[in-house]
Amino acid sequence: MNWKRMVGGGMLIGVVLAGGTGLEAGETKAKPEVVTRARLVTLTATVEAVDAAKRQVTLKGPKGNVATVDVGEQVKNFPQIQVGDNVVVKYYEAVALRLVPPGEATPGAGATGAAATAQPGQKPAALGAREVTATVTVEAIDLKAGTATVKGPEGNSVTVKARDRKNLEKIKVGDRIEITYTEAIAISVEKAKKKS
């Protein structure tokens, strides 16, 4: 399964059908030196039309927005999609930041990923996930502007704005910060629930 295509398709659906059914965001602290921000977005749309020859599905979102989506060959169970079915997209992302103690060795960068699809004959479904970890070094801090400049493992520098300026007071030039970005997307087609 092509991860970029799957995420791109999920994000396209998210943009076109804006107004998802649920958004949860939060901040947790696993340890004093680890800060995690995470969110889960769930979007549900109804299949309005299926064009088997063109491999296209027309979806209607909860606010009445309509979009036609191309369905790639990687979706093996395309013939199972029917008008009235619900397409459910769940997108999860999280960022964890950890101040690396002096002397601790850390790898520069790394990535892992996984993907899965529905079994033959079932309604189409796909799941993909990836996690990217990189260690950056603090090069400059501008408390007035609320920004920090960090250098990545490949030598590239970027200036980022802090969400909370108080966090900038906890770091100093030369500190290393390990950043772990996790994202997952699940797309499923479900039969419409019968109205009672």
What do these coordinates show?
The protein is mainly beta. The chain has one domain. The chain contains one helix and ten strands, in the order H-E-E-E-E-E-E-E-E-E-E. Strands 1, 2, 3, 4, 5, 6, 7, 8, 9 and 10 form a ten-stranded antiparallel beta sheet that branches. Strand 1 (22-31) and strand 2 (34-51) form a beta hairpin. Residues 1-32 have low confidence and may be disordered.
| β-sheet strand percentage | over 45%
Let me know the average pLDDT.
80
The Cα radius of gyration reads 21 Å
Helix content: under 10%
How would you characterize the largest beta sheet? 10 strands, antiparallel
Give the distance, in angstroms, between the N- and C-terminal Cα atoms.
38 Å
What is the domain tally?
1
**What is the ordering of alpha helices and beta strands?**
HEEEEEEEEEE
Tally of DSSP helical segments: 1
The number of E-state strands comes to 10
**Form type:** elongated
Class per helix and strand makeup: mainly beta
Pick out the low-confidence regions.
Answer: 1-32
Sum this structure up briefly.
With 196 residues, the chain is mainly beta. It contains one helix and ten strands. Helices cover 7% and strands 54% of the residues.
Could you outline the blueprint of secondary structure elements for this entry?
Elements: H1 3-16, E1 22-31, E2 34-51, E3 56-60, E4 66-70, E5 86-100, E6 109-117, E7 125-142, E8 147-151, E9 157-161, E10 176-190
Antiparallel strand pairs: 1-2, 2-3, 2-5, 3-4, 5-10, 6-7, 7-8, 7-10, 8-9
Task: Name the descriptors.
single chain, mainly beta, ten-stranded antiparallel beta sheet, 7% helix
